[in-house]
């Protein structure tokens, strides 16, 4: 079913506009909360994914977080310069770069579950439990291919 036509489409009333605006709002609030740790919300996603073992290579992180490989490389460069992660070539396949959090990276990643929920809960405070679950369900449906 087509929900938009050239006649009824309005940028500021579109789902894409609202999702993008919500994303920008959340990024700004999360970045402010992470300022003392000297990382961004996108870097938080990398650190948490690595800490939980969900992704261990730049390619896996790119796919998981929906970030193109060029941007991922630049973000990993910054995290490596900050001393939060290390890169090493795979012994089995030299084309593969393995990532590992440093002790400092682990320490920062350990603190993130204390910070992120505060930001998210502040934004979701007017939602009932049922509304929250419905929002998650609808966003997952939107993201499904």
Automatic annotation (TrEMBL):
<keyword id="KW-0804">Transcription</keyword>
<dbReference type="Pfam" id="PF01047">
    <property type="entry name" value="MarR"/>
</dbReference>
<dbReference type="InterPro" id="IPR036390">
    <property type="entry name" value="WH_DNA-bd_sf"/>
</dbReference>
<feature type="domain" description="HTH marR-type">
    <location>
        <begin position="1"/>
        <end position="144"/>
    </location>
</feature>
<protein>
    <submittedName>
        <fullName>MarR family transcriptional regulator</fullName>
    </submittedName>
</protein>
<keyword id="KW-0805">Transcription regulation</keyword>
<dbReference type="InterPro" id="IPR000835">
    <property type="entry name" value="HTH_MarR-typ"/>
</dbReference>
<dbReference type="InterPro" id="IPR036388">
    <property type="entry name" value="WH-like_DNA-bd_sf"/>
</dbReference>
<keyword id="KW-0238">DNA-binding</keyword>
